[in-house]
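Subject: sequence -> structure tokens, single chain

Hey, anyone have a minute? Need the predicted structure for the following. Not urgent.
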Amino acid sequence: MRIAWSWTVAAVLVPLLVWAAPNPSQDFEAAAQEESGPSFNWQPGPRKVELGHELTLDLPEEHLFLEKAEAATLLEMNGSFYNDNLLGVVTSKDESSSWIVIVRYEDEGYIKDDEKIDAQELLTAIKEGTEEANKERVERGFKPLHVKDWSEAPHYDKARHHLIWALDAFSDNGTSVNYSTRVLGRRGYVSMNLVVDPVGLADSKPHMAKLLESTRFNPGARYEDFQEGTDKVAEFGLAGLVLGGAGVGAAKLAKVGVLAKFGKFFVALLVAGKKAIIPLVLVIGALVSKLFGGKKTEAAPPPANPGE
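Reply:
Had a minute. Here:
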């Protein structure tokens, strides 16, 4: 089965995933028709997918899953080279859909969820950090990116241990949205970032909600299985997750004085040897054939009982 999309990613740098409306002056369709790429073995739902790290995804019937090795190839084709924590990519079987979800795992430890989220303070920090980061973006030949407002202010579901937020941004290339979710566990968390044309955000959010409910830590690795005194505890909380998901690096925030409150999060990243300064990269809409070769090959359906 061949499935063609109407959108693609010109450049992806996770954890920040932003999808922007294309510049009308650029003929993406003509460019896409001139290029071809490999087909990927997308696994169709319904099936149970063991993601590793004691995580299970009950892939819904209407979705497709690309396992981490091929998903890494897919992202590397488009400029995202830091994929050690990648678990896979999910999309829809529907040809008319224009979204993908990038799934990653971070073993930062147990994240305490008892802090109050100050959305306005976080927004100010992200705006200031982004403007500081624009200096480096311009030096590297990228257009500056500006954060406008929350499309969906950060909110935490304490019963499910889900953290969700969405940011509106814009540049000369168009408007964009960064829709991010986190599922907390005993030893770390799962990030599920939705990449979608802003026009399609409302239609894709129910799919995102369904995927969130379908992604679970196994017994023993759940958030409520945390063992005080023996398990690792993260050096940051919910606010740190939001700042990190926005791709705001330590050096940038140090210049705008935000580290006084949120510094532990970035110190933890530096100690872990991770890339602390993450330039904001715009993901530009075009034809999916430029990314996927215009085709996705759906693998054979699973056995009647995928658990066997």
